[in-house]
UniProtKB/TrEMBL annotation:
<keyword id="KW-0812">Transmembrane</keyword>
<keyword id="KW-0547">Nucleotide-binding</keyword>
<keyword id="KW-1003">Cell membrane</keyword>
<keyword id="KW-0472">Membrane</keyword>
<feature type="transmembrane region" description="Helical">
    <location>
        <begin position="157"/>
        <end position="179"/>
    </location>
</feature>
<dbReference type="InterPro" id="IPR043428">
    <property type="entry name" value="LivM-like"/>
</dbReference>
<keyword id="KW-1133">Transmembrane helix</keyword>
<dbReference type="InterPro" id="IPR003593">
    <property type="entry name" value="AAA+_ATPase"/>
</dbReference>
<feature type="transmembrane region" description="Helical">
    <location>
        <begin position="34"/>
        <end position="56"/>
    </location>
</feature>
<keyword id="KW-0067">ATP-binding</keyword>
<dbReference type="Pfam" id="PF02653">
    <property type="entry name" value="BPD_transp_2"/>
</dbReference>
<dbReference type="InterPro" id="IPR001851">
    <property type="entry name" value="ABC_transp_permease"/>
</dbReference>
<feature type="transmembrane region" description="Helical">
    <location>
        <begin position="200"/>
        <end position="222"/>
    </location>
</feature>
<dbReference type="GO" id="GO:0016887">
    <property type="term" value="F:ATP hydrolysis activity"/>
</dbReference>
<feature type="transmembrane region" description="Helical">
    <location>
        <begin position="100"/>
        <end position="121"/>
    </location>
</feature>
<dbReference type="InterPro" id="IPR003439">
    <property type="entry name" value="ABC_transporter-like_ATP-bd"/>
</dbReference>
<keyword id="KW-0813">Transport</keyword>
């Protein structure tokens, strides 16, 4: 699917570059303006879909950038863009305290007010903005020092394509990295992010300022492509159509937002000629239909593929071969959030390999793995851990020379914003797991069972959504085994468990659903009772199950 998107993006870029040779100058100029609005829509999508701050106010930094570029006394494009971005960002920084503490519809109202205020200032502050008449671009822009001036609609359009393309690429790269994860995490579960020590307000401020810079850049590009700017460019209808385009395209997808917005503004222009005065009505109907039929926009059609909201982990035909041995053979699993899933099977069934595949420690030979609605097949173990996949290894992996408390504090450091900050939640976790009295003891002095519990505490400190447990009962004494059972039973349902274990009594007592493997092959899935009484399972186990 991602290859399809890449192909579509490359084709769309090719068409975008070829277009001015296929249409007249007027259409080229119109397309340039639509492209600029698409760029501003990317900033709206960043706030609305990614950061969870729905906005009607991006017309304000858009205008600030445009007027800043218009009042500059020089004509180098990159300087204009840089200044406009800085002014857009500064405007956002000033207004951020009004926005980042609000949520939901209140954000819409505040940003609407900011947009309207900016529009009023643009209309009234004649000495700077030219009032309702607007400002003309006084000099022809040259993209960089020494380049020739952009003196045709085609040249200005291509300049906008390149500048907008660079900005969109930067946004996409940023959103694929930690910044995107942190913003989406804040949007999905702000409380949990704060509980994990994340400064959500700072993240939202960062996103708001970055969105201001993007919209400001759009302002400078609007000036260049239109050769003038006026308050009418930044009115409520522009703000509303931007949001409409973003909703139609898919609020969480910058490329979808760009395409959706281009579509909406093109439709508005076309409908204005076709049905004078009726365009807002038709677009309003389109908005309502989209909100009902495609709540995640057109781009939201992409990740569906048989993934229900509650499925936390899906493996699709996943396999791993070692030479002639197929350790895991085309396995389809579907584990819902909160589930306790046991995986059992005789030695060599592929259980540990399956956990390695899910954790990202082992590369699959084929198939796909989806976690929390996202295809994680290509992601390594660290990225998957960051997404919420925790793992308990067959042999407890602890830092032997650190104290029990420090082991957990270090494991929690990334979530807690540092080791020192991690100490308090670490101490609470140790108490919960019955290890509080060992907090000051080096891990190497703990018993095997205590180390096992410590590793569970360390994994929980990372606040996993899915915890993979590889034979946690191996080597435990009877007392330690009892305690492990109690610890696992008491884990909150926010943590989904995938438990590989030879001690079937533990699996049957703990699991909601049990999957049986043999020689890498899927044998059966069912409730503990069904599995216990299944003839196929007895055969797979050759009578081991009593
Ligand atoms: N790195 C490897 N190189 C070669 N073969 C491997 C490797 N890892 C696993 N295998 C083989 O893959 C098969 C499945 O191994 P795996 O360890 O996943 O099974 P398991 O069900 O966890 O077994 P056990 O219960 O004994 O731990 C076995 O035949 C094993 O020998």
């Amino acid at each position: 699917m991602s290859r399809l998107i890449a192909l579509a993006t490359v084709s769309a870029t090719g068409v975008a570059v070829a277009v001015p040779w296929l249409v007249d100058d007027y259409t080229t100029a119109t397309l340039a303006r639509i492209l600029v609005l698409g760029l501003v829509a990317v900033s709206v999508a960043l706030l609305t879909g990614v950061a969870g701050l729905p906005t009607l106010g991006q017309t304000a930094p858009f205008a600030a950038g445009a007027y800043a570029a218009a009042s500059l006394d020089q004509s180098v494009g990159v300087v204009q863009l840089g200044v406009a971005a800085a002014v857009g960002a500064a405007f956002a920084l000033l207004t951020a305290p009004l926005v980042v503490y609000a949520r939901g519809v209140v954000v819409l109202m505040i940003t609407l007010a900011i947009g309207e205020l900016a529009m009023t200032v643009a209309s009234r502050w004649k000495s700077v903005t030219g009032g309702t008449d607007g400002l003309l671009a006084v000099t022809a822009v040259r993209p960089v020092w020494g380049a020739s001036t952009l003196d045709s609609d085609r040249a200005r359009y291509l300049y906008a394509v390149v500048a907008a393309g660079v900005v969109v690429c930067l946004v996409l790269v940023a959103l694929r990295g930690p910044a995107g994860l942190l913003l989406r995490g804040s949007r999905d579960d702000e409380g949990r992010m704060r509980a994990s020590g994340h400064p959500v307000t700072a993240y939202l401020t960062g996103a708001y300022v970055a969105a201001g810079a993007i919209a400001g850049t759009g302002g400078a590009l609007l000036l260049t492509t239109q050769q003038y700017v006026a308050p009418a460019d930044f009115g409520f209808d522009t703000a509303a159509l931007l949001l409409l385009g973003v909703v139609i395209g898919g609020a969480a997808s910058p490329l979808g937002a760009l395409a959706g917005t281009a579509l909406v503004f093109a439709a508005r222009d076309w409908l204005s000629g076709l049905l004078p005065g009726q365009a807002p009505l038709v677009l309003g109907a389109l908005f309502v239909a989209t909100a009902y039929l495609l709540p995640r926009g057109v781009a939201g059609l992409r990740p569906a593929r048989g993934c229900s909201v509650d499925d936390l982990l899906i493996t699709e035909g996943v396999c791993r071969r070692y030479g002639a041995v197929t350790a895991v053979d085309r396995l389809d699993l579907r584990i819902v959030a909160g589930e306790r899933r046991g995986v059992i099977g005789p030695n060599g069934a592929g259980k540990s390999t399956l956990l390695g595949l899910v954790a990202g420690a082992i590369r699959p030979s084929g198939g796909r793995i989806r976690f929390a609605g996202r295809d994680v097949t290509a992601l390594g173990a660290a990225r998957r851990a960051g997404l919420g996949i925790g793992r308990i290894h067959q042999r407890p992996a602890v830092w032997p020379t650190l104290t029990t408390l420090d082991n957990v504090a270090v494991a929690a450091a990334r979530r807690s914003g540092g080791v020192r900050r991690g100490r308090l939640p670490a101490a609470e976790l140790l108490d919960r797991l019955g290890l509080g009295h060992c907090a000051g003891i080096e891990a190497e002095r703990l018993s095997h069972g205590q180390r096992r519990q410590l590793e569970i505490a360390m994994a929980l400190a990372g606040r996993p959504r899915l915890l993979l447990l590889d034979e946690p009962a191996a080597g435990l004494s009877a007392v330690e085994f009892e305690r492990l059972g109690a610890v696992l039973r008491d884990l909150p349902r926010e943590v989904t468990l995938l438990l590989v274990e030879h001690r079937l009594d533990l699996v049957f007592a703990l699991a909601d659903v049990v999957t049986v493997l043999r020689d890498g092959q899927y044998v059966a899935t069912g409730t503990p009772h069904e599995i216990r009484t299944s003839a196929a399972v007895r055969q797979a186990y050759s009578g081991v199950i009593a």
